[in-house]
Amino acid sequence: MVTNEKELGDKYIKPPAFNMNEVFADSTNKQPIIIVLSAGADPMRDILKLASEKKIQFNPLSLGAGQAEKAINAIRGAQKSQTWVVLQNCHLAPSFMPTLDGLIEEITIDPSSAARIWLTTMPSN
Questions:
Q1: Fewest Cβ atoms nearer than 10 Å: which of 43, 61, 76, 117?
Q2: Do 121 and 36 touch, CB atoms closer than 8 A?
Q3: Max alpha carbon distance in the chain (Å)?
């Protein structure tokens, strides 16, 4: 098994730099930003910093039992108010994912919209 950097090269050993500004620039109000987490990772600090820099309000919501209606209202509200919604722990709400997909399908792309949907999840089916 090859596991050292010298044999594989940096490209396969070191993760690429993650730039929230670039991620935001590549997104739209209809295209969610999905952050797949690793153990101990918490992107909320970086999302908060970017929201502050852009002077955008955001609504964080941790998914789980009983949060579906709150998430639906948060997404619809963010689209209207040009804010962000951060749905954390999507892996804890697999039954909500088809509903989320339907909500996103309803959104009309608006290149001038500041609204964004951020999703965080651990690796999951």
A1: 76
A2: yes
A3: 53
29-47 pLDDT per residue, tens: 999 999 998 887 788 999 9
67-121 per-position pLDDT tens digit: 999 999 999 999 999 999 999 999 999 999 999 999 999 999 999 999 999 999 9
CA–CA separation, 59 vs 117, rounded Å? Answer: 10
Residue 25 within a domain:
yes
The total domain count for the chain is 1
Element (H, E) at 1: none
In a domain, 98, yes or no: yes
| Amino acid making up residue 106 | E
Say whether 40 sits in a helix, a strand or coil.
coil
**Model pTM score:** 0.84
Q: According to the model, what pLDDT value does residue 31 have?
A: 93
Q: Give CA–CA dist 32/48, Å, rounded.
A: 17
**What is the span of the domain harbouring residue 84?**
18-121
Consecutive H or E run containing 25: helix 20-25
